[in-house]
Amino acid sequence: MMEDKKLIEVQHLKQYFPVNGEKLFEKKVVKAVDDVSFYINKGETLGLVGESGCGKTTAGRTLLRLYEPTGGKIIYDGTDITHVNMLPYRRKMQIVFQDPYASLDPRMTVGDIVGEAIDIHHLAANKNERRDRIVELLSLVGLNTEHANRYPHEFSGGQRQRVGIARALAVNPEFIVCDEPISALDVSIQAQVVNMFEELQERMGLTYLFIAHNLSVVKHISNRIGVMYLGKLVELADSYELTFNSVHPYTRSLISAIPVADPETSRNTQRIVLEGDVPSPVNPPSGCRFRTRCPYADERCAAEEPKFKEISSGHFAACHHLDRVK
Amino acid sequence: MNEYLVDVRNERLSFFTPAGEVKALNDVSLFVRQGEVLGIVGESGSGKSVTAYSLMGLTAHPGRLVGGDLYFNGHHINEMKERDMRKMRGNEVSIIFQDPMTSLNPVYTIGNQIVEVILLHTDKNRQQAHERARELLQLVGINEPDKRLKQYPHELSGGMRQRVMIAIALACEPKLLLADEPTTALDVTIQAQILELMMDLKKKLGMSIIIITHDLGVVAGMCDRIAVMYAGKVVECGTTDEIFYHPSHEYTKGLLQSIPNLNEREHKRLVPIEGMPVDMLNPPKGCPFAPRCGSCMKICLKQMPDYTQLSDTHYSACWLLDKAKFESQGDVQA
Known about the structure:
heterodimer; A: Rossmann fold; 11 helices; 31% helix; 24% strand; globular; B: alpha/beta; Rossmann fold; 4-stranded antiparallel sheet; ABC_transporter-like_CS (chain B); P-loop_NTPase (chain B); ATP binding (chain B); membrane (chain B)
């Protein structure tokens, strides 16, 4: 299914937001995404992980031009879409949001929520065709025909997330940004939704950008994973390579911090516990942004920002001390 | 009179809502020994928080205890007066909540909120209490305690606030600490810090902990014993190893199979638990998990199973443990 053909690529993507500073009338910028580059091949899933405020959601939304990028380029299927009218591309690129309670209009029936996209893009010639298409979409995500006439509040969290997915699929997209699509769901429901994403990908050849903070889930679903910290991509590699042979100190501590659901393993492993908190993105540290919490940091890290470079085939990392990290 | 610090026997607790009675806890029995860490695992609405709150007499309206006995540290909670309860809370048992932003008072300084507990429960004067508050902040790993004592909650990060919550909870060296999803709102690296801190303090102070969570990873690393709850019942209870390596209830097995394992080297499909969580207003007859259970038998839909004792420490409520008996009676899988 996977071909080595880039479907979407971002180059030096920047997204800054103006904020109020601490003093009255003081203006500052938050560099939510700062010079991030990556690409996603057709039929592939790229995972994006990081802690809250690291810019992973902003990266996903800027990619879809839900925000106007401050700088950089977005290339979709060979075309630069950084400044074009997005309407034709909305049919190809869709998004599933995190909170299925907030992302569905409570006054619309599920049929209309799914049907809205069909109307906007004139994908159905008449009412019957529209209805058939809605029924088809609902059954694709495991809901029944009768659900089309109900309102979002009548559904459980897992079912609502299915509605959100049906809505994204309504336009037959090629690419879907999945923005924390399972973190609001109960544990026993998460696996259902993860499996559905995988089945849909196999059946329809979809390409995903899968954003989440839970590395276990991201590793499960992704072909490659990018790790973000304070607006920067710090490491990017094949998902197995990243989980077992990570080189960046942040990635390592992130992996080691994840509680493993196996008593034996968690008794026998020594955790790398990071000191301190994530610094504020309004005032990021100079040089390498991770240096304030990094056990390997020295003067060079404060003075010079490390380059994001390829260390082995397909494995990128940004750190001055890759040779010292154990 | 009782070897356990916490002993909950056949607790029944219902919420009397306009839509009808919701049996949030249906015959829950649990115990915690001195110095032990018990994990309560379950989905939202399974009754794990309600169990913990009722131990402190904190059942919210329209909830009411309708049956069973709760013992804690020699107190019979059912018969305690509100006055005595207030003396007990924060002193012998205390709680930390999921969201440290909403559980700290935004208009008082951190110092004020810690000192309040100490003044209320001990005969220290204000100056001594302040000194103790400083000590506590150092204990929970907060640098520059003198500066922090004067700050307000909004000036601290999430992890820092949770540390303050822990400091408040530990101010009177309680016998029992209830931790209700203490790390769910925090990032993984901060979660690791807080969990480490809790285990550290447990060793130093020797208290018991009940930790409530839906994250199986958290309980695997921390707990001595685990109780798995589903629809207001403890469906299985055992030591951590028994639950993880010899799960006997179909729900526990399902939970363990449905989470991806970071250490796995090849891609396997997850095995989800089918169906949806129980509607607590109209719970099914018989075993509440039966409608989602892959090996449901006829008896499961009719009658709630009793506990089967699998070892001294391990028990589980599932008819399948008696499967042979029902098969001989012709109860084929439904």
